[in-house]
Write a structure and sequence with these properties.
Elements (H helix, E strand, L loop, with lengths): L1 E5 L3 H14 L11 H7 L11 E10 L2 E11 H7 L3 E9 L3 H17 L4 E4 L11 E4 L15 H8 L3 E12 L6 H12 L4 E3 L7 H15 L11 H11 L8 E5 L5 E9 L2 H7 L7 H10 L3 E9 L8 H16 L3 E4 L2 E2 L3 H6 L5 E13 L1
Parallel strand pairs: 4-5, 11-12
Antiparallel strand pairs: 1-2, 2-3, 3-4, 5-14, 6-14, 7-12, 7-13, 7-14, 8-9, 9-10, 10-11
Helix pairs in contact: 6-11, 9-10
Length: about 375
């Protein structure tokens, strides 16, 4: 017999975080996230997003064994800005029993309606930097450290419960060319000579703060019209920067400055951490850091975490400026493939960015919606 429980204790919180690792223990493409980061995400003393987001977590047990989990989120700022009454579900995982899925969805629906909401969407997180989008195609592909993995039956369960597509993201695997293509060289030269842009690489971690806030101000402008997006305030930016700053490889961080030395674009790439995170089950200790450092040193796959361009500079060669340097670096380090993060299928600029490269679209993920 299944029982539903609201997460209220540290032990239950650990059960909530650990459950997908148990569920997918023998599934090769699954990669976990950092357990500590997940615990922080739901801690009001750690995560400033919770100042304007209401959240709740539920677990479903079969006797003492966890068989399902789900989180509910109401982003009050987003609802105010877009005049909505929308609740989000996130971190949904469950065994292949639609009874469990229904219990999870019903729990969030009841909570959301009590809060005055009339629409439920998901899976989508607190911010655009959180994991979002249920995998609906590409289940055999290794997932990125920053994305969701799930079984095919998740989609079937949600659709049986009346959910429909609200937005889709696609992901690509790009073969890194052996040399910089002429088109990229020309684009980079135009960016430098005609428009006065320059590439800025940094050598010391403390220098990140010189550019990061300008970069995120630009990020807020560049992504403001994308699905589910809400501009990040400074304290939330601080939270994410502190979360990842020790992991960032400085040679894989690019800023493009305009003629006034203002950030016009930035890109962040990471060596793929899928293998090390999977082996360490989301824990940094005792061996997690060692495995991460090993992936940093030798890795033929990189993940493209961010590529953001100030909209007023679109079409002026900024991506070519970054990509010219990146291709040289990837070849030097033996990188053969680059994985894009999720890109909205209707974001023509991002979708067309890779059309001149050898690539394959290998994953699709979806955010669902339902009136409640």
């Amino acid at each position: 017999m299944y029982t539903l429980k609201t997460v209220t204790t540290k032990k239950e919180s650990r059960h909530f975080t650990k459950f997908p690792n148990d569920l997918y223990n023998d599934v090769k493409p699954y990669t976990t996230t950092l357990s500590l980061d997940e615990e922080f995400n739901f801690n009001p003393q750690k995560n400033p997003v919770l100042e304007y987001c209401d959240t709740i977590r539920f677990l479903v047990y079969d006797n003492k064994k966890v068989v399902g989990r789900i989180a509910g989120i109401i982003n009050r700022k987003w609802n105010e800005e877009f005049n909505g009454k929308t609740a989000r579900f996130s971190r949904i995982d469950m065994i292949d029993d639609i009874k469990v899925t229904k219990m999870l969805i019903d729990s969030i629906t009841k909570w959301a309606k009590e809060k005055g909401m009339d629409t439920l969407i998901g899976p989508i997180g607190f911010t655009d930097l959180d994991r979002q989008g249920m995998l609906v195609d590409g289940f055999e592909e290794m997932n990125m450290f920053i994305t969701i993995y799930n079984h095919p039956y998740y989609k079937e369960h949600l659709e049986k419960l009346g959910f429909i597509k609200d937005a889709d993201w696609i992901e690509k695997r790009i073969t890194v060319p052996g040399e910089v293509p002429d088109k990229v060289k020309r684009g980079a030269e135009i960016a430098r000579r005609r428009f006065g842009f320059k590439l800025q690489k940094i050598k010391k971690r403390k220098e990140i703060s010189k550019y990061v806030y300008e970069a995120f101000d630009m990020y807020n402008i560049a992504f403001k019209n994308l699905y589910g997006f809400l501009a990040l305030p400074k304290d939330v930016i601080d939270y994410y920067v502190s979360m990842f700053i020790t992991m960032v490889r400085l040679d894989y961080l690019w800023f493009v400055l305009d003629k006034d030395d203002k950030v016009a674009s930035f890109a962040l790439v990471m060596p793929s951490l899928s293998r090390s995170m999977k082996l360490s089950k989301g824990k940094l200790f005792p061996f997690g850091w060692y495995r991460i450092l090993k992936d940093f040193r030798t890795n033929e796959v990189v993940d493209l975490w961010f590529i953001a361009v100030d909209p007023k500079y679109q079409g002026q060669g900024l991506v070519a400026l970054f990509w010219e340097d990146a291709i040289k670096l990837f070849n030097k380090k033996g990188v053969k493939f680059a994985e894009t993060g999720p890109e909205l299928e209707n974001n023509a600029h991002m979708v067309n960015m890779w059309k001149d490269y050898d690539h394959r679209t290998h994953k699709r993920r979806r955010c669902y919606t339902k009136k409640i």
